[in-house]
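Hey, quick one: can you model this chain's 3D structure?
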Amino acid sequence: MKSYLKDLTNTDVVTIKLNSKEEIITRLSEITENELLLRKPMCMIQTQSGVGMIPWIITGNPNHDIWLQTDSIMALVKTQPDLASNYIESTTGLKL
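Sure thing. Here's the predicted structure for all 96 residues.
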């Protein structure tokens, strides 16, 4: 995974699948040997009108980045372009 992370920038939207089976959509603020700093991580939920996004940690401050231990990650990939656009719109208000 470390070689894959070198190709990512803080403008890339990524999807992280955790060992707990949770799936997070986020941007990476910082990468260390054992941790990733997540910027506004969101998770997918099923709604009556389709799939939506909510903050991954609901009771935390949504403007604070969150550290994630890399040993809790099962997979990490760039997010599909349409979902990445939805994430950006949801977290910034910008329409792409």
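One thing worth noting: The chain has one domain: 2-92.
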